[in-house]
Design goal:
320 residues, alpha+beta, Nucleoside Triphosphate Pyrophosphohydrolase, four-stranded mixed beta sheet, 6 helices, 18 strands, 29% strand, metal ion binding, NUDIX_hydrolase-like_dom_sf, NUDIX_hydrolase_CS, RNA NAD-cap (NMN-forming) hydrolase activity
Amino acid sequence: MTVPPGGSTADDNPPPPRSDWPEDRLAGAVTDVPLLSRTAHDRGHLARALPDPTQGRPVRVLRIDERRSVPVHEGPHGPELVYEELPTLPEGAIYLGEADGVPYAALRAPRSLGVGGRPVDGWAGLREVGAELGDLDAGLLAQAVGIVEWHERNKFSPLTGAPTTIERAGWVQRDPVSGSEVFPRTDPAVIMLVHDGGDRCVLGRQAVWPPGRFSILAGFVEPGESAEAAVVREVAEEVGIAVTDVRYVSSQPWPFPQSLMLGFVARATEEQLQIDHDEIEEARWFSRDELRSGTGPQALPPNVSIARHIIDRWVAGEFS
């Protein structure tokens, strides 16, 4: 399965309209941006067991609408999230943890022109502003979207089918029939740049993407499979070639809906691509010069994605 530009392997999350993606066709320009430093903050496992994990302190609440967008405004150094300052954790909110002694939470809520009496410049999602946010905002946004996605996809017990009840400030769902606890999960997925050991790499595209958009290959790790084995299998399934020299690069949480993207590079041992059109619409070899100059794909993944991070590093000559 080829990865969408943002890094998601979820088939049931169609990509946003083309205007939502940065217009940046050139690779190699953002290699040094710390795209993968999206660290969520300590939730305090002991504090979660308390009736009020904020311990009665004022809490900053991040609203998330049905499109997984949040309120933002333009600060002096770029986009910033707009939090609602509340005296206590509101009903239905999910506790995200604290940073610098301040509790944070997420809450599903409709869009509005203002938040807590503060005007907002607009609503945006992780794909649009993730690469421009500071570490605190970026980490909280990725965590908030991921846990909201989990709740909306797991409203019933996998054991009995009974509607679950939410406990521990949003970090546990309980099956009222069996008493079993259901915890948030993360699905491992591999995302890999396949190169020829020289100056070319394979990029593919899905039919649901706008014309001309290409990215690197990706797919979910199957039960009983290592990440490296998943790289070899997915490449063979999608473009019909064998690879060797599979090397880990880095990882990125991608909460659409609940993936952990494990990034790799691998060297192809054959050249002729045999595309599985049930998996992807098109795949081609592209040279570094094509990606660097913009004469190749009409669009590449956005800067926030691990896909773009790996492409940029390969274009810059880090992998061979």
